[in-house]
Write a structure and sequence with these properties.
Number of helices: 14
CATH class of the largest domain: Alpha Beta
Helix content: 25-40%
CATH superfamily of the largest domain: Zn peptidases
Distance between the termini: 78 Å
Number of strands: 22
Shape: globular
Strand order of the largest sheet: 1-2-4-3-5-11-7-8
């Protein structure tokens, strides 16, 4: 009897393993000739939900009612949550950039087959393969209501991005990767005689308020590991840059309103990966998907091999954020030329040959133009209800005043508003000076201490001179309408 039970159990295990090996990503099943539709993705994720160590859930619904799915894979098995490295991967914020989603489905299929056990053994993996299902179905960059998801990470103006941040705050991953595609054929490069040929670009933390320790680890350890893996597979690789030879070439934005810097300012080891877009969504799809996957797996492998070190490093850097009162916070910044050299793979239109072009000058340094010290707290009056709601969405801790009281604080007087051209954009620059005074707080006003994880985020968000703060956004333009800025500082 016992022998029969054992044989049945072995047969069941063999069948289960065979079923898992049969899980194939839709793009592979299609021979890389067609993109994975929303319905195909949903069916694929349904099959993953039957596999051990996997769970599939819905974190948001799009404007058209399509689900945004989260897949969790516990590579660490039954290890405690704080003993495994938590990694969040998400893709296709821009609907017309599909290769990241396809690469993540292949990664999930390989994990289900058991072929990635060595890569994921110390990782608790959270994957959102498709952030923008509506845009994907329409083959357009933005959502159906014309919003750019990757410019929604500060104001949280889309339900999909708001849900991603809810996930972030509930899980608190130490590593995040936002996967995109870049267009290689823009006129600013072809007019200069080049086509960008990199298969993949990797972007790291560039905002000066993000942890310099984490940024140094990215550059010294992760980037070389990814570069080596890409070269070994025959793919062209470089650091993520924007700009053009006729103007300037720099790192991508320092803005905290995207999927990299938005988590990076909370001292997360955050990355953006940009694969090479095709002239059509299907063109050269297999190479695009496999090169994206190679970069993702190399990043995961490197992080897993340093899992214990990374967990301790990130948690330490996050603890530091709770003690930044009196420290400097950069408010306005710009990219300037430095001494670093960068050679990138290009195709010369004059010769038709592939070569390496040395970027010169390379604007590799982010220079701080204006800074402030982090105060003890900010006071947000109750009539600034939209600001208070935004703080709550970001899980910022604050206290609501119950009874009237007096408090010594500083109020910004607005002397005028000018404009700065920074990062090829025109941004408002209020001229302000701080006036110390005693203010009577009313019931419903909010006191926001900076002795919390969000210290530098708060200063970036609430300071009137901040180029990436509230004053940049039309829906908060009212904060500059009167002669006094409404949000106060507690020194």
């Amino acid at each position: 009897m016992l022998r029969r039970v054992l044989l049945l159990m072995m047969a069941a295990c063999s069948l289960l393993q065979a079923q898992h090996h049969d899980i194939v990503a839709p793009v592979e099943r299609n021979g890389f000739t067609a993109l994975t539709s929303y319905d195909s993705l949903r069916a694929f994720l349904g099959s993953l939900a039957e596999c051990p160590a996997f769970s599939v859930s819905t974190i948001a619904a799009s404007r058209s009612g399509r689900s945004v799915y989260l897949v969790r894979y516990r590579g660490g098995g039954s290890s405690p949550l704080d003993a495994t490295l938590r990694v969040l991967l998400f893709a296709q914020q821009h609907g017309n950039e599909p290769s990241g989603k396809e690469a993540l489905t292949v990664l999930l299929a390989q994990a289900a087959s058991g072929s990635l056990k060595d890569v994921l053994r110390g990782i608790d993996l959270y994957v959102v393969p498709q952030m923008n299902p509506d845009g994907a179905e329409l083959r357009q960059r933005r959502t159906t209501d014309s919003l750019d998801m990757n410019r929604s990470h500060l104001v949280l103006s889309t339900p999909e991005v708001e849900a991603l941040h809810e996930l972030f705050y509930s899980v608190k991953p130490q590593v995040t990767l936002d996967v995109h595609e870049f267009f290689a054929f823009d006129e600013s490069w072809t007019d200069s005689g080049f086509i960008k040929m990199a298969d993949v670009q990797l972007g790291m933390l560039t905002n000066p308020n993000s942890s310099r320790v984490l940024a140094a680890f990215q550059r010294s350890t992760v980037f070389p590991a990814v570069a080596e893996a890409m070269a070994a597979q025959g793919y062209l690789f470089q650091e993520y840059i924007v700009g053009s030879p006729s103007d300037r070439v720099r790192h991508s934005t320092t803005e905290i309103n995207d999927g990299r810097q938005g988590f990076g300012i909370l001292n997360t080891l955050s990355f953006i990966q940009e694969g090479r877009e095709g002239k059509s969504p299907e063109e050269n799809l297999e190479r695009r998907v496999r090169s994206q996957l190679t970069g993702i797996l190399a990043l995961l492998r490197c992080c897993e091999s340093h899992a214990g070190e990374l967990i301790a490093m990130v948690e330490h850097e996050r603890d530091i954020l709770k003690n930044r009162v009196g420290d400097s916070c950069a408010l306005r910044m710009e990219h300037i030329a430095g001494e670093r050299r960068l050679a990138i793979p290009v195709r010369s239109l004059s010769t038709g040959r592939d070569t390496a072009w040395e970027v010169a000058p390379y604007h590799s340094i982010v220079h701080t133009l204006c800074s402030t010290t982090v105060p003890q707290a900010y006071i947000v009056p109750r009539h600034c209800a939209s600001v208070i709601r935004l703080l709550a969405k970001h899980h910022v801790s604050f206290t609501t005043v119950g009874d009237s009281r007096s408090i010594r604080c500083g109020r910004y007087k607005i002397d005028g508003i000018e404009a700065d051209a920074l990062e090829e954009d025109t941004l408002p620059r209020p001229r302000v000076h701080l006036v110390p005074e005693t203010v009577n707080l009313a019931a419903g006003d909010v006191i926001v201490p900076t002795t919390q994880w969000h210290s530098l985020f708060l200063a970036t968000l609430l300071e009137p001179e901040s180029m990436w703060g509230l004053t940049k956004y039309p829906q908060f333009a009212w904060t500059l309408k009167d002669k006094w800025y409404p949000i106060l500082r507690v020194p």
